[in-house]
Amino acid sequence: MTPTITAIAQSPDRGRGLARDMRARWALEEVGQSYDVRLLSFSEMKEPAHRALHPFGQIPTYEEGELALFESGAIVLHIAERHAGLLPAEPNARARAIGWMFAALNTMEPPIVDRQMAVLLESDKPWHEQRLPLVEERIRARLHQLSARLGDDDWLDDDFTAGDLLMVDVLRKLSASGLLNEYANLSAYVARGEARPAFKRAFDAQLAVFIATSQN
Length: 216
Ligand code: GTB
Prior knowledge:
- The protein is of the alpha+beta class.
- The chain folds into two domains: 4-85 and 198-214, Glutaredoxin, CATH 3.40.30; 91-196, Glutathione S-transferase Yfyf (Class Pi), Chain A, domain 2 (Up-down Bundle).
- Helices cover 57% and strands 8% of the residues.
- It has nine helices and four strands.
- The protein has helices at 21-31, 42-45, 48-51, 72-82, 91-121, 128-150, 162-172, 184-194, 197-214; strands spanning 4-8, 36-40, 61-64, 67-70.
- The chain has a four-stranded mixed sheet.
- Helix 1 (21-31) links the parallel strand 1 and strand 2 (36-40).
- Helix 1 (21-31) packs antiparallel against helix 7 and helix 5 packs antiparallel against helix 6 (128-150).
- The radius of gyration is 17 Å and the shape is globular.
- The model has no long low-confidence stretch (mean pLDDT 97).
- The site of S-(P-nitrobenzyl)glutathione has 15 residues, from helix 2 and helix 4.
- Residues 11-13, 18-20, 42, 45, 57-60, 71-73 line the site of S-(P-nitrobenzyl)glutathione.
């Protein structure tokens, strides 16, 4: 059965692939699973039909037969568990890969999203100029630790896994900040993820949505 995911009809990222449907698209492309996309406006996300799928009125969601999922991490984990290619078969390596998925979403992403929100929503506040460096220091601390752990390796734990997929997707949110450029190995890590054919297909698909909807 072909799964259906939801995405923003007119994403504020203007086709840069920074919204969270990108993770689901990339995971589906990595495992070779075709998928349909239902586009939603911000107001449609808050309507009862979508809230029945997603209690918080957000994207992405994932529907496959009787199954409806929300939360991008749960969606990527589901895809990785049902198909070969994103999680190692060996139990300990598999557990470590899932650990990296949580690290991407629970440890790395919160300060990065905090910065996004600060820049998008708080730049007119009198305390913004003082707060932003504090937020960026928290991000740098995590980048420093991640950089030390990655070292000269290509991926976080041997082969590419769903942990790398989420980590690269999270780090991409820093592309406009300049923070990632301070860590050569992390910049190269993100570039390696973006060079994967599955990433490119996912990126092109979400970009096509932006191009089509901005012409309307
Ligand atoms: N924890 C959830 C998950 O991982 O699935 C978070 C989902 C989420 O935040 N979804 C956002 C959403 O639906 C879209 S991606 N927001 C609508 C709302 O909450 O009302 C967020 C996003 C959009 C655009 C950019 N950008 O332009 O850089 C970055 C992030």
